[in-house]
Amino acid sequence: MGSTTDKVVGKANEIAGQARQDVGKAVGNKEMQGKGMVQEAKGDAQQLKGKAKDALKNVVDGA
């Protein structure tokens, strides 16, 4: 996956995870809230991966 794809998919996971948490809170479902937290964390990590790829590319291109 390219850095842009990682960042976009990561942001989508982050948003979906937050929505899942909100729905879980609204209906009182702790399991859904937990799964939303995991999905949001996965999205954050994926965005960081995309940013790291960008940083590495910038270093390589500048060399």
What would your notes on this structure say?
- With 63 residues, the chain is mainly alpha-helical.
- It contains 2 helices and no strands.
- It has helices at 3-27, 30-62.
- The longest helix is centred in the C-terminal third of the chain and has 33 residues, at 30-62.
- The two termini are 23 Å apart.
- The model has no long low-confidence stretch (mean pLDDT 95).
| Number of distinct beta strands | 0
Note the gap between the termini: 23 Å
**Can you give the helix content as a percent range?**
over 70%
Average pLDDT score: 95
Q: From the alpha-carbon coordinates, what is the Rg to the nearest angstrom?
A: 15 Å
Q: What general form does the structure show?
A: rod-shaped
Regions with little confidence, pLDDT below 50 for 5+ residues:
none
Range of strand content: under 5%
Look at the helices and sheets and give the structural class.
mainly alpha
Largest sheet: none
- Write down the secondary-structure element order: HH
So how many helices? Answer: 2
